[in-house]
UniProtKB/TrEMBL annotation:
Catalytic activities: DNA(n) + a 2'-deoxyribonucleoside 5'-triphosphate = DNA(n+1) + diphosphate
Cited PROSITE patterns: DNA_POLYMERASE_A (PS00447)
Protein name in the entry: DNA-directed DNA polymerase
Source organism (scientific name): Holothuria leucospilota (Black long sea cucumber)
Source taxon at top rank: Eukaryota
Gene3D superfamilies cross-referenced by the UniProt entry: 3.30.70.370, 5' to 3' exonuclease, C-terminal subdomain, Ribonuclease H-like superfamily/Ribonuclease H, Taq DNA Polymerase, Chain T, domain 4
InterPro entries per UniProt: DNA-dir_DNA_pol_A_CS (IPR019760), DNA-dir_DNA_pol_A_palm_dom (IPR001098), DNA/RNA_pol_sf (IPR043502), DNA_polymerase_A (IPR002298), RNaseH-like_sf (IPR012337), RNaseH_sf (IPR036397)
Major enzyme class: transferase
Keyword Phosphoprotein: no
Domain DNA-directed DNA polymerase family A palm: 257-390
Enzyme Commission no: 2.7.7.7
One GO term (biological process): double-strand break repair via alternative nonhomologous end joining
One MF annotation (Gene Ontology) recorded for this entry: DNA binding
Length: 390
């Protein structure tokens, strides 16, 4: 460990490791410090070369890039998932042997990948952008995030009371109690009792209600069995939320319930008290953080897909808008609708934004009509006039 510590402290030495972020974190926790200098990870290089490819473990990486060396892994056992063999405690074999074999294989694998990165003109991005970002992530994950258990408890109580209020309102709208966690119960209430159309289309209807199939036409199936054939997914409820307040309320209940079970309760479970700091800290298992005496900066590309589209199409109007100051989608809406920018409403801006991204990703008139809550004919007209403008 002494030799490792001395060697790793030399800033000019590049540290290479498979899943290097986890390896450096382990070393920092054992030795009590982070090492200076650059790091390299073949997993990051592989991702950069083929971002859409499935993530590979060490055996898969060797089979793909240095097939003649796969046999060296036969006597060292396997790891867990996609992590390094050297730091896998579940492997009963010699840790020293695993680490030595992995080190030799990784050095050669990294050289192969660096050559491929250079051939693809990606080596500078790997060295100057991707790998330094790994160091930043190591710092963030080792430091943990400040966590206020009191505030979390306050939010939990508020959310639970809101959840109860939504349940009572749902029962009132349905005219009886039912399980908001049961798709069968929800389908029974929405489609069989309130007679809302399962596909969102109202034909021969009276105030949003439709005549449901009779038991005879469904082959004699009972009401409970009928309900199982109707979807209660988010997409299905979105289609009918304008016909009755209950579907929208169910969507809100699900969102709040998910926040409690997937975020708030786990956060309370994962907090760790740090004696040196005299406070609870939360390590990044979940992505809800607070910054004590500081800020978190979130940065994102501005209309990235739209800029790529403008570059590829070389549309002069679109390029001019993207290079000017002001709200991009408000300017697009103004040009599209032949309005002054100040006259564009928030609704018109949102329509322009959804059409922009919808057309980039190949959305159809029907899907757009559902998003904008307009008729399919109007959506098709929107898309046609938009194409005429750009």
């Amino acid at each position: 460990m002494t030799s490792l510590s001395k060697g790793a402290r030399v800033s000019s030495v590049c540290k290479v490791g498979f899943d290097v972020k986890e390896q450096v974190k382990v070393l920092a926790q054992v030795l009590g410090c982070l090492f200076p200098g650059p790091v390299e990870d073949p997993k990051v290089a592989h991702w950069l070369l083929d971002p859409s490819a499935k993530e590979k473990n060490l055996h898969g990486m060797l089979a793909h890039y240095t097939q003649d060396q796969v046999g060296l892994l036969e006597n060292v056992g396997g790891g867990i998932g996609l992590s390094s063999l050297g730091i896998s405690p579940q492997n009963p074999g010699s840790g020293r042997l695993r680490s030595c074999v992995e080190s030799v294989l990784i050095l050669d694998l990294m050289e192969t990948l660096k050559q491929k990165l250079k051939e693809s003109d990606l080596y500078d991005a790997f060295r100057e952008i991707e790998m330094p970002s790994i160091i930043t992530l190591i710092h963030v994950e080792l430091n943990g995030i400040g966590f206020s258990p009191e505030e979390c408890e306050t939010q939990k109580v508020f959310m639970q009371s809101k959840l109860t209020a939504l349940e009572e309102q749902a029962y009132l709208l349905a005219g009886r109690t039912f399980s908001l966690t049961s798709p069968d119960d929800i389908a029974q209430v929405l489609y069989l009792e309130l007679k809302l159309p399962p596909n969102g289309e109202v034909r021969n209807s009276n105030q949003g209600r439709v005549t449901m199939p009779t038991r005879k036409t469904l082959g004699g199936r009972g009401r409970g069995q009928m309900a199982k054939h109707f979807s209660t997914s988010k997409e299905a409820l979105e289609k009918i939320k304008n016909l009755h307040p209950l579907p929208g309320l169910i969507l809100e209940w699900r969102k709040l319930s998910m926040s409690l079970t997937k975020v708030v309760f786990p956060l309370q479970k994962e907090k760790v008290f740090n004696k040196k700091l005299g406070m609870d800290r939360l390590f990044p298992v979940y992505q809800t953080h607070t910054a004590t005496d500081g800020v978190f900066l979130a940065a994102d590309y501005s209309q990235l897909e739209l800029r790529v589209l403008a570059h590829l199409s070389q549309d002069a109007k679109l390029i001019c808008i993207l290079n000017s100051d002001g709200d991009v989608f408000r300017q697009i809406a103004a040009q599209w609708k032949n309005l002054d920018k100040k006259a564009v409403t928030d609704q018109q801006r949102q329509e322009a934004k959804q059409i922009c991204y919808g057309m980039i990703y190949g959305i159809g008139a029907r899907a757009l009509s559902e998003q904008l809550e307009i008729s399919e004919e109007d959506a098709a007209c929107f898309m046609e006039t938009f194409r005429d403008q750009y």
